[in-house]
Amino acid sequence: MACLKYPSVHFLPLYENPWTIPNLLCVCRILLAPFLGHLIIQQKFHLSLALFTLAGATDLLDGYIARTWPTQKSALGSALDPLADKILISILYVSLTYAELIPAPLTALVIFRDIGLIAAVFWVRYKTVPPPVTLTKFFNPCYTTAQLKPTLISKINTAIQFCLVAASLAAPVFQYTDSILLQCLWYITAVTTAASGYSYWHYGRKTVQVLNTRSPS
């Protein structure tokens, strides 16, 4: 679908092409998430592990492409990539908790933090879209008003969360569901999840780069 263009000159600096390869890979990761969750609930762990490895590969690939080819880098991608990770992580953690492979309190912590971050992203979007704010403007991917800058601890936490998913999926496949190392990874994930949530609260505005201020009234 073609991107909508507004006649106001104030919107021209916000325009960018959202149809980049990294963004499409992020969308594929989002679409894969519910299917993966269904497979886990059905206890098809071999196939789940293989598809999760594929999803992880797309995460690495979209970052590599965006860094290597500047034309493939977008402000939308700075929000879409972590959003895809959070949707994938949330669905997988709930599914793995249902399968009794990840404790419920840890899943609750992860989801609570992610809901807070997603709400913050929507708030930033609302505050940076030039007035009058309409649903068409708000959800138009062609106009990006802010770029997200994840904190270092958040990047580390995302990697640890993915490692726990991989380890949990592999546990029934390789018969180590009662491993003390896996349980230690639960606590490490909990600590880094809480720390990453605090880092966003602490640094606040430093994690967001506004690309275009509101147009003068």
Please explain how this structure is put together.
The protein has a two-stranded antiparallel sheet with strand order 1-2. The chain is 67% helix and 3% strand. The longest helix has 25 residues, at 104-128. Residues 1-13 have low confidence and may be disordered. It is mainly α and 217 residues long.
The rough form would be described as globular
**Number of DSSP E strands:** 2
Radius of gyration, taken over Cα atoms and rounded to an integer in Å:
19 Å
Count helical runs: 7
Low-pLDDT stretches: 1-13
Helix content: 55-70%
EC number: 2.7.8.41
GO biological process, one term: cardiolipin biosynthetic process
Family: Belongs to the CDP-alcohol phosphatidyltransferase class-I family.
Keywords: Lipid biosynthesis, Lipid metabolism, Membrane, Mitochondrion, Mitochondrion inner membrane, Phospholipid biosynthesis, Phospholipid metabolism, Transferase, Transmembrane, Transmembrane helix
